[in-house]
Structure formats: structure tokens, C-alpha cells
Here is the input.
Amino acid sequence: MTTIATLQKGEIGYISEESLDSIPLKLLEMGCLPGAEVELVQIAPLKDPLYICVNGSHLAIREETASKIQILKVNSLDV
Amino acid sequence: MSKNDIKVALIGNPNTGKTSLFNQLTGLNQKVGNYPGVTVDKKEGLSKLSPTQNAVITDLPGTYSINPTSIDESIVLKTLLKKDIKESPDVILVVADVENLKRNLLLFSQIKDLEIPTVLAINMVDQMNRKGITIDLSLLKKQLNTEVVLISARKNEGINDVKAAIIRCHVAAKASPLCGVDHKIDPDYFMKLKEISSDYSLYELWLMVTQSNFPETVTKEEKEKLLAFKQDVSKVKKYQHKETIYRYQEINKILKKTYIIDKSKATDLRARLDKIFTHKIFGYVFFVFLLFIIFQSIFDWSTLPMDLIDGTFAEISDFAKNNLPTGVLTDLITEGIIPGIGGVLIFIPQIAILFLFIAILEETGYMSRVVFLMDKIMRRFGMNGKSIVPLISGTACAIPAIMATRTIPSWKERLITILVTPFTTCSARLPVYAILISLIIPDTKIFGFLNLQGFVLLLLYALGFATAILAAYILHKTLKIKSKSFFVVEMPNYKLPSIKNIFYEILEKTKSFVLEAGKIILALSIILWFLASNGPSSFENVEKNTVQNPLNQHLSEKELQQKIASAKLENSYIGILGKTIEPSIRPLGYDWKIGIALITSFAAREVFVGTLATIYSVEADDEKTATIKEKMATEVNPITGEKRFNFPVGMSLLVFYAFAMQCMATLAIVKRETKSWRWPLIQLFGMGFLAYISSFITYQILS
Here is the structure.
């Protein structure tokens, strides 16, 4: 399964519509919406948490949460 | 506050400059109170909107949404749902960051649906050019159907526009929902909800269902009907998700017409700084280096003001003693109250300096990066990345540190942080450490450059942190509390700190320390003074006996007075108490005199030094450490004939002070924050037990 947690640093994906129910409300409210572009900006030294940029919000979320949010992967170079 | 004042609730996402706006609107007319029934501080300020119109502005905690995930945030919901005419806000002022308007408008859209008159202040507009942002203000006003003001709170621009907009909004008193939660999601469902009561807007009813938060005005019957909606939990959850998506769709539609951002203008300052501050090696190196600088500065900068406060209070005490008529009341003032107040104020320099640094770290946005770096490590010990702020603050004082845990959403992680914070070396331990170290550790250099005494002090700091972490781990493994750990931290833009905000922050934190800890330290000082200056019936003869004792005849008047003071203390209630506990502390290497000092330390740990000073007949109001030190150094253990403060006893005491929970003020705060006596009692006995056992082992091994 491709999720935010499987992105490489600097890579971009789009949050898939199917994961709507598995996104915590708080994250939705902070702009982590289905269809939104999400970039993995930085990974913390111990591989967790992840620093993402979505809908203009820069957020740190735990790997546990990130691995539940499915995405469609697009190589940043192709866009 | 007069009846005509407009009640304004200030609300917004974190990092939007809400505090700056609050400070600009109210200046020094701020006060911090409590919300009835809950422990979160309520910040209020008076603002002069026009020559004839004032407003009372309440600064609500920063939040991304009305749906709360922490105690701080739940205050926002509670305040907004209130229907009490005296307390519910007349106008809501929403602050938004121009750069992240989309997300900020989510909160705005929720508030608008409460149907309370709302003003939207878009902040940091001075950045618009640089970030390539253009806004069609008049169209935005029309689309949002509200007053919209562009401001730059830090530069004090647009503040008068905000004031005018509040008045206009209040006069017009028109309020209409923006999105409406009903039609797009499930019209039938929401129609039924609406039928429950016409006293509330539909969105208010919906919030009562989703948050189970009912204002007092809701009748029993209405409450039952609302709770019935709650039964289908998955449906409620699904509709909450749908609601949020729907809100964003509406916001997107509006912004498409009114808001343009030219992405090519984005600067890479954030990326460049992040690369350094969140680097897997350099990030930590920088953080440790920063901590080192902070602690170094705290010690360097606070010595002078602390000596000044100390000296001033000794002088005031002397002055009062010499100018007031002798009697019990004078004694109470000069020996109980004045030193008690001095004992509180002495901590202000260190606390203020530490909060200066913490405020700078938070204002600049660096603290979020530390939280990011530390979360995984802290989680292994049952805490949260956010626990790092309380643990650092704890080196000044545990009281503001424990209050800073409120941002941690998981109850278990928050509780563990509260419980272990008192292990960090607070400023009250320093005077105790300083005098003991100077007594038992030689003033030499190791490895040719490292001061051994300083090194031991550093080790004690490390011991405090290590114990905190270890205790957290044990609690993490033993506490059976189910609490969902959740972690989302915004990584804000890097900003230069605002001097005004930092000044207000230090003022507020210091004030809350003085009020919270102060009253307890002061009360305890008075009680201890009473116990030390009164005793059972034989107490009155102590002075006479001492004067008549042939051994004392050769003493000078001054020496005799000191002898009397010492003898009085020995025969006072507290002296008796010290002797009573002597058998139980003898295995740690202590006598009853040290026992007294341990008891009085419950007011504040540093009282240890002053108490020993009195016991060893040093003038009590003379804080010359050298003289106390000399006395302590020459004190002999009558049983062994050795020095009383030899290496084993000194080490045992150091360990005792590192671990024991000797702070009534902290216990009171823990009780307040955990709403139960259980946790402070666990702290008192758990830490006390650890201190006793460790000191026992230390003493027995070393002696």
C-alpha cells in the first residue's frame, strides 16, 4: 500500500479518496484532505515523526498516522 | 468592566499572531484569571475602541478548529457555546494568517455558523508583497458576509480598523451561517436535529452532539434527544468528516475568486533553516549547544539580581526590627512574613531569564523543530515530543513547567510529564547544591581544565534528567491508562521574535509563579516561623537557662544572643519534631538539626540553607554563605568525633535533595492540574521513598 509513510524525502503524492475515513478529523481540519498534494519535507532522525507539507500547512505527524493515509504517488520530476 | 462594554472573544489558529493582536489591542490592561470550574488561564484585557466605547477582549487559546483535542482547546468550545448573557461573547474576532488563509478560514467558517457577529482580521499583510499574495478585499467581505480587516499586528498597522470593525459589527448585530452543515450532508438528519430546539443554531446543536458538551441552558429533555443522535457513533464521525470536506470546498470556491498566490515568490528560508535545525546530527548538536548557552546565561545573569533581592530583604527585615515595637507581631513580620516574601521573590530572576529564552524559542518557531526531533525519543518513555518544553522549564521551576503540559493532548503522556517534571533540577535546589558541594568537593581542576565542583553540579543536573526519564519509563510501563496518543504539530514559519510579545509572556509567567507558588511559600514560612518560635511549656525557660548557664558566662552579648536563638530552636515545636524523626534519618547520616532543615525545606528547598544558619547560630538574616559554610564545616558529629558534613553525609544529602518532593507549591499545582489528590500523593511518597532509599545506600556505601 502506498501511504505518506512510504514516500521518500522530497517526494510528492496525492491523498487518495479512499483514505477519507482513516484520516483523523484533526488532520482533515488542518488541510490534509483527499485529493490534496502532499510533500514529504523531512524525516526525523529516528525515522519518525514525518514532516509534511499539505495544502500550505507544514505539519509533523507520526509514522503511525502517516501509514494509514493512502496516496497516489507521482514522481516530483514528472510533474 | 461596565455593562456597556462589548465582549469580544479573540480566536485563531496558533502562530497567526493572535497574541500580538491581543497585546496591541489591550496593552498593559491585561489580567489573567481562571475560567470557572476549569484550570486553564483566562486572559482578558480592556481595549478602548473609541472615546465612548470600550471592549473587554478575551484571548482564547489558539486552535485549528472548534472540535477540541486538548484541554486548552476545549475552552474555546465552552466559551462559544455559552448562552449566559454575562459571559457569552457579543462579537468574535477571528485572526488569520494571510499566508495560510485557506486553513485559517476553516475555523472562521465554523464560528460563522454559530451565528454570532464575527470580524475576520487577516494578519501579517506586510508579508503579502514578498510572498506574492493578492486579495480582493471587497469581494472577500461580500463572499464571507462579514467584516474583514487587513492588519499587521506586529507593525501596529490596521489596529484602529479592527476596533472600528468590532463596533460596526456589534451595532449591526447581524449574523448568518456561512456554510450551513445541513443540506449537502444529510438534509433529513439535520432537519430532525434542528427540530430539537429553536434556541440554538443548527451548528450549535450539532456541536453539542459531536462534542457532548452541553451549555447549562439546555433542558433535560433536549439533552436526551441530543444524546440519542450520538448513539450512531460511526455516522456522527462520518458526518464530521463530510462537514470538514464540505467546508473546505466552500472555502476553496471563495478563495478562487478573491485570493491569488504567486508560488514562484516563495522564499526558501524555511527549507534552508530546517535543513540545519532538523538535521539528524547537527540538529541535536545545536539543541544541546543551545541548552548549554541558556543554562550558562541563567547562572551568569541571575547572580547579581538575586544577591540584590536577598540583601534588600535582609535590610528591610533589619529596618523593621529596629523601628517596630518589640512583640510577637513584629517577630511575625520580621522573621516570618518578610523572609517569606523574599524567599519567593529570590527566584524571579532565574525564572524570568529562563522564560525569556523559552519565549524566544517559541516565537521564532524553533521549538516546534525540537518537538519534531524529540518526539520519537520521548515516546519511548511514555511522553510526547511536546514534553520537552515542560522538562526544560522545570529547570527554573516546576510550577510553570507543569502548567505548560496542557498542550499535550494524550492524558497519559501529559500525566507522566507532570509526574516526572519535579525531578529536573529546579532553581530552589541550587543554593542547597552549592553549599553542600563547596563543603565536600575540593575546589580543584580535573584533566587540568575542568572545575571539579562545577562538574559535580553538572552531574546533578544530569542525574535529575536521567531520573525523570527513567521514572517516566517505569510509569509508562505500569500506568494502566487507556488514552489515545495523537500527535500533529504545525511547523510554523521562522520569524524574528517580537520584543513586546516576549515581554508580556515573561510578565505573565512570572506573575503566575509569584501568585501560585508565592501564597503557599509565604503561608508555609509563617507556619514554620510559628513552630520555630513557640514550644511546649518549658520553652519559656530556655532563654533564662541559657543566660544562667555558667558555660555561657564568658560569651559576648552577641554570641549569647546567638546561643539563645539556637537553644530556642532546639526546644521549639520544630526542634522537637526534628528530634522525633532523628531515629529514622540517622541511617542516612543526618542528625535532628538536619532533620529540621529537611522539614522546613517543604516551604522551598532553599530554606535548607537558612534553617541551618539559624540552627548553627549564624545570624539568620545574614546570608553570607561563607559564614554558614564555616559553621557547617566545623560542626562535629558528637558520636564519631568526625566532621558532621563529611563526604558521605554530604553526598547522601545531595542525593536526597535531588530526588525528594519537597515543594508544597508544586504538589498544590499537580493537584489542580490532575484534579485529584492521588497523583500529588503518589509523587510525594514515591519520590520520598526513592530519596530515602538512595540516600541510605549512598551513605552506607560511602561511610
